[in-house]
Amino acid sequence: MKKRPIDVVVLSDVHLGTYGCHAKELLQYLASIKPKTLILNGDIIDIWQFRKSYFPKSHLKVIKKLLDFSAKGTKVYYITGNHDEMLRKFADTTMGNFSIVNKVVLELDGKKAWFFHGDVFDSSVHSAKWIAKLGGLGYDYLILLNRFINWILVKMGREPYSLSKKIKSGVKQAVKFISDFETTAADIAIENNYDYVVCGHIHEPAITIKENKKGSVTYLNSGDWIENLTALEYHHNNWTLYRYDKQTAVNEPEETETANPIDVKLVATLIFSNN
Fold first, then answer.
1. What is residue 221's predicted lDDT score, i.e. its pLDDT?
2. Global pTM value
């Protein structure tokens, strides 16, 4: 199987351990690429909603695949997010090619790129964490309901429908939050003379130029693997936004999917064992 060589790949908001996570599709994407650097930009494992009763084999295989990249020479940065904030106590820990960090700055062809998750801009996460966690749980069940509705729609020969996207696009406050998030990230990046600012957190994939009176910056967001199924790719001095397409995806060998209970220690071992 020929894999695409890529200089930098950015993934975020995978939310392993939740019903909404598209782990099988992510595995297909990971099987098709050979990155020099892999940025895991937060919320890869959803520790907020972690359940012993739900961690399917495909979710474990994603963790193993990510660690395999590290073992085979890919530099992997795991940037902590709000749903995996428990890992922040391990920040600045490096094991071989695998590093856990809160943010990272890389030089890409002479330009500076600033990578961080973005929850630092979300006041709801910091001022009322229990509300944010409750909202995350509600979002997970909304996605589960949406999958059932889309299954019915497909059977009827109709196009799938995104409940959460409809809600977000129809609520002015949500639209304003996304706009404010992008503007804040861009303003800080411009102030610090970064050429690129790369975030996750808001599940809105984007590549756009942001300007203010002091200059301009390229704002990028890697989206998520709940609804958008997107990643950022940097290669030959160019950023592109990858969107998963089941028609062209590379399939990995199928295994029987189970949802057997799993020991939390096993997942922790997989995360922190590099070999």
1. 96
2. 0.77
